Amino acid sequence: MCRWLAYSGTPILPMELLYKPEHSLIDQSRHARMGVETTNGDGFGLGWYAEPGDPDQWDGQPALFRGTSPAWSDVNLRELSGRIHTGLFFAHIRASTGSPVQQTNCHPFRHGRWMWMHNGAIAHFAELHRELLLAVDPSLYPSIQGSTDSELMFYLSLTLGLEHDPVHAVERMIGLVEQTADKHGIPDAMQMTVATSDGVRTWGFRYSTSRRSRSLFYSTDVNTLRRLHPDFAELREVSEDTRIVVSEPLGPLSGAWQAVPESSYGVVQPGDDEIHPLVPRAA
Amino acid sequence: MCRWLAYSGTPILPMELLYKPEHSLIDQSRHARMGVETTNGDGFGLGWYAEPGDPDQWDGQPALFRGTSPAWSDVNLRELSGRIHTGLFFAHIRASTGSPVQQTNCHPFRHGRWMWMHNGAIAHFAELHRELLLAVDPSLYPSIQGSTDSELMFYLSLTLGLEHDPVHAVERMIGLVEQTADKHGIPDAMQMTVATSDGVRTWGFRYSTSRRSRSLFYSTDVNTLRRLHPDFAELREVSEDTRIVVSEPLGPLSGAWQAVPESSYGVVQPGDDEIHPLVPRAA
Amino acid sequence: MCRWLAYSGTPILPMELLYKPEHSLIDQSRHARMGVETTNGDGFGLGWYAEPGDPDQWDGQPALFRGTSPAWSDVNLRELSGRIHTGLFFAHIRASTGSPVQQTNCHPFRHGRWMWMHNGAIAHFAELHRELLLAVDPSLYPSIQGSTDSELMFYLSLTLGLEHDPVHAVERMIGLVEQTADKHGIPDAMQMTVATSDGVRTWGFRYSTSRRSRSLFYSTDVNTLRRLHPDFAELREVSEDTRIVVSEPLGPLSGAWQAVPESSYGVVQPGDDEIHPLVPRAA
Amino acid sequence: MCRWLAYSGTPILPMELLYKPEHSLIDQSRHARMGVETTNGDGFGLGWYAEPGDPDQWDGQPALFRGTSPAWSDVNLRELSGRIHTGLFFAHIRASTGSPVQQTNCHPFRHGRWMWMHNGAIAHFAELHRELLLAVDPSLYPSIQGSTDSELMFYLSLTLGLEHDPVHAVERMIGLVEQTADKHGIPDAMQMTVATSDGVRTWGFRYSTSRRSRSLFYSTDVNTLRRLHPDFAELREVSEDTRIVVSEPLGPLSGAWQAVPESSYGVVQPGDDEIHPLVPRAA
């Protein structure tokens, strides 16, 4: 299992959220409270989109910085997260559920303009791996670099139309995994919280076959956060539509964080956010 | 802070103690119970002596295998600890108190026939580093490879006669550190549990200036262990003089583990073991 | 491309061959002379069999020590290769032809009692990967850990009977790869030197579709070596049936090394060695 | 020995110079032509200053990204060097002359606004280390993190006034090293090319006691470069005062690169560049 954070809003230095809050993502790398495992020390990743018009922007693709050391001791992560200004970033700390600790297994994953990160697992993945891999579009297949269920779920979703209708694609991906597991007599196949983005909108998914999904929270409106936490300096300067989606709250911010409901997804986007039920579909 | 284990007795595979017990050293790398920090993920080390007459023996020097990744995910550590038969080995998992995560800072340290590993810290070490380094014998100085207080304590002890009278040398090393700290107005300078060996005898030290030392335990006689734990298969085959010294017990073995008293040292050796008070001395 | 060395004979410390000769494998890691690339710095591996009757022996499986750093700077490789006595070992230094530098892509690979290492490449592997992966027996599929053509060639050979008839299996594996490449219009599909062993015999294969195979050499009988090189101390103590198979000679030992002929394989075994032509077969 | 590149001028992506030229720094990491060693695979570093007014700027300090893997295979270096726009950066690839391959030994080094990188060595450094370390100002001493001669030369120069008069400080640093070596009977003590910068000006030093210094080149004026190399696209868009200082030319750009004379230093700065003799001084 893992912990992750997705940020969308006024450009900030990721360091503000990764290191400074009381229960920051870095704190969660050693002392996660709501996960299956308190330690998330099997690698990390930071993915970010440049601002529109930024000369560093590269075809709209997000940038990635990923490593295999624990996030808490990575000197480069600390350095870079204090140097990069970005209005949309993903950060992930990994706790392997069996696949090797190597860079190609670190989240977020990237394909074109899209990023993807995951907390959870496909049950009995070793048994299902081959069959699920075969379901990936052969033209996408060579882009798979690692050996995780997480990356495979990304490529299955891309195969099933992620770039055109992300929600529908993820619902079909879940359906495909559950259906494949059924054939093998494997119950409770899917356990996932997932974030994905195209650089404009960010989707957060919470789902499990057993309806006992891993935790997922989003920040409520910034005005509430400001009233409750006048001392949280970073909040003063971000716009009202800034949102954080995170595996577990960054502090004891009562009232500042809301749980994403069981089997639901949310969309963070310009204009109103949305939360809807998530329904697996036959692939 | 860190966790460590020193084994002396019938040759075994280190894997038996590092991975198999309920609260093995590998379990302690993520879930230490008695340390300042639950996570010990900043590198690891295994040091071992070959058996007398072993063709792999190399001038009586212990062999070292050290790495910077967390012990729990290191594939090579798992592999090697299941391949090497040894009757005297040290194993260490590190939680950095500030110095970089790099191989040269991983325990155990080696000099000639001697090994050394440490849990604890010298208070305000950055402030004292230069002065303590100057106290190392210039002929030993070039052998220092890392930047930890732990390795420096080893070279101070070597300077003060470790190879001839280990207890006296460690007592003088403590005295020197406390004296230097005093000059700088630093209280409670020393916090340590240390193991050192020459390949025949193993010394375990427990000490802190404040007399609130980190935990240290040793296994009582093997017969007691066997009676209490008929299911612990490895115990059946080891000799009666086999001893384990460890930062925290490897399981809820009530009666099987005894705390080393505050400000004391023990010697594991052929013949009777010894436990004595430890008294800092003017260097 | 890569460089490798297979040793079979009187137990020695691998260090003797990896570090000491003038053009040792470690020297080849920076200054290969006969390879496509002079630098082989993308990881390394050492695999060895314990002696029969050795208490460290573990089900007849070889032990592995593999890492991603360049061999020339790996402190643990230097240490371990000077500590392990073995009469049958493989050593490999990697120069990636595209797949990531990660431990799961380091040679040798292991399955049960079998080891496998490779120098070369399957042409346009990204294009053929999926189809070749599908040809692996589904029961073997979950054992594949990395993403190299080398490991896949091993699992294809296992699928095609390596454990029962290694030569026939490798010939069919080559046939399968060439046939698959043909369908995709890819010429000169296979370029390989491969070593494999079951812990008793060692096979060395040299083959390429274009009949311009990478170099492969074996040591001639030890008496010749001794006469030619009275100063090579290690040779004095090894038995007459000791053999070394290697990508390029370990020194300018004129007369001491013979090239394995184009499209051939050799067997190092108790009794007479053999060299025969290698003929790809329809899988 | 090592290779390095210092860039000052119109903001570009470091990737343009690190990866694209025929004999780019990445090419030099495996195939250096003018160095003592063709392979520079013992770690790398990139240090850069943000543009004035850049919101990511952090107290005027340069940012660092350093790693221990070979530059040619580091996925993050490739990624980041294509994302960061900067008008003043240092890039370094390391070939260790003995000190461990670890991040704290990777160049460039940083202190406040200052960066420093080095190619070369102090002769018999192990013998001189202690005495030279003692000459570092005790208030600077705790900032030393690694164990290289290169970093120590930086801290000696800081001790001797680098921040106020860089040339005078480096001349005194050389004098101090040579004087210390003399006392130990060590000839030809210093071999160095060094770059240092405060974020505005960049100094390049070339010196050796024996007057046979490692190579150092600088680009001549951009107009000449453009005329000679109409195909070098990056040149079209950079300003006329853009300069590159580099251990060896990035291609066979005859006329485009000039050697820094023996025992000299150059200053790249707004306005006219300067080249002057370098004269060691008694510290």
TrEMBL record, chains A, B, C, D:
Cited Gene3D superfamilies: Glutamine Phosphoribosylpyrophosphate, subunit 1, domain 1
Molecular-function annotations in GO: glycosyltransferase activity
Enzyme Commission designation: 2.4.2.-
Segments forming domain Glutamine amidotransferase type-2: 2-249
PANTHER family: GLUTAMINE AMIDOTRANSFERASE DUG3-RELATED (PTHR43187:SF1)
Enzyme class, UniProt record, top EC level: transferase
Keyword Transferase among record annotations: yes
Family annotation (PROSITE patterns): GATASE_TYPE_2 (PS51278)
This protein's record includes keyword rRNA processing: no
Record-linked SUPFAM superfamilies: N-terminal nucleophile aminohydrolases (Ntn hydrolases)
Keywords in alphabetical order: Glutamine amidotransferase, Glycosyltransferase, Transferase
Protein name: Class II glutamine amidotransferase
